[in-house]
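Posted in: Structural Biology > Protein-Ligand Complexes

Title: Requesting predicted complex, histidyl-adenosine monophosphate in pocket

I'd be grateful if someone could produce the 3D structure tokens for the following input. Sequence and ligand are given below.
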Amino acid sequence: MSKTLQAIRGMNDILPGQTPVWRYLENTFAELLEGYGYQEIRLPILEFTELFARGIGEGTDVVDKEMYTFRDRNEESLTLRPEGTAGCVRAVLEHGLTGGGQVQKLWYAGPMFRYEKPQKGRYRQFHQIGVEVFNLPGPDVDAELIALTARLWRRLGVADAVSLQLNSLGSSEARARYRDALVDYLQQRFEQLDEDSQRRLTTNPLRILDSKNAQTQALLAGAPVLSDFLDEESRLHFEGLRNRLDAMGIAYQINTGLVRGLDYYGRTVFEWVTDRLGAQGTVCGGGRYDGLVGQFGGKPTPSVGFAMGIERLVLLLETLAVVPETLEQPAHAYICAFGEAAELAAVTLAERLRDALPGLRLLVNAGGGSFKSQFKKADKSGARFALILGEDELAARVVGCKPLREDGEQQSIAWDALAERLSACVEQAQHNACMGKE
Ligand code: HAM
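-- Reply #1 --
Done. Output follows.
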């Protein structure tokens, strides 16, 4: 027997039982963003490899170890996007959306791909919802992005389980000066560093700051700190952001070790973290990347954004038991039909009802079956009413309407009156007045 086909490790199917919570998250987020004046952008999943190598940076884990890269039939090197920022910057540049200092406030959602070690909250195909803003240089927009995420946590009912970590990485010059000082300090203690950090000392020394190794962390306690190297403009920018967060009552912790794993950041960086998900506790991360558009050949364009992991948010909603109970909408009615003539009448009646009531959720029995089996299926479907069409109903041009979720006798309703009677259910205006409980 042939081996059962399986999905690739770390790439999950999102089954029908899970899609309602995904849609709930996506819809809540889209609605919130539209309320703040953000517009959706949809971007390709595949890009030229060079985009990520240049954008995210050689020497980062994402580029060096985690990309799904292959050659297409034309020998071009392509990569499945590991994140959304680089592609978004490419798109706004390619279409001139930021020319003349135009402000863009954009959001996107979709799958991202990283060859990481799969575990709870960490997958090889995962999904992000992200936001990118262009041509707004001040801390006001950094604060808006954080306020917007804080509002999302409140709407989702997870605000008490997440906290905000904040840092400023300063200008690229300040970072370069800091990097030299840090390398100098760690070089003298090279032997005490863990293996990963020893490697990073030449490739990406700032990433050593968020090493999980206890001995390395102990060494870092005496290391120079980035905040002492901040340039004046970055210091003022950070102060402006903190003042706004304070004014809005948004709590945060300054974490001088927060550097983020992608090279494009400067000045503001932030993460929303939770302690309820184990090791993969970052649900949202972002920051300013004022240099990236210029690096891609565009005019210098202030840019800032963030992305959140949908899988981690779904896990968080489930862990905290705050998934709304009403996400799955059962059908309004289920038509049972007995005999070929009734089946024919059922499908034509169903299509007429759908014409009249576009919001109607109507199931029509398929595959025949006895009265008992069709009625069982109607009940199992969760529908509120069974609409019964047998020989007698057909002759009288009526349906028998039997409530399935509440007590009540079966009543006869003329086909011509059915749409009007069902409309009350569709509008859900008066739940109990639905279907003839005058
Ligand atoms: P990131 O921190 O690499 O940033 O990813 C953002 C979020 O995506 C993480 O906080 C996490 O929730 C989720 N995530 C990342 N990797 C995985 C994974 N393997 N499995 C499950 N979830 C994951 C970025 O991607 C930046 N592009 C964010 C940004 C936008 N910065 C500025 N603009």
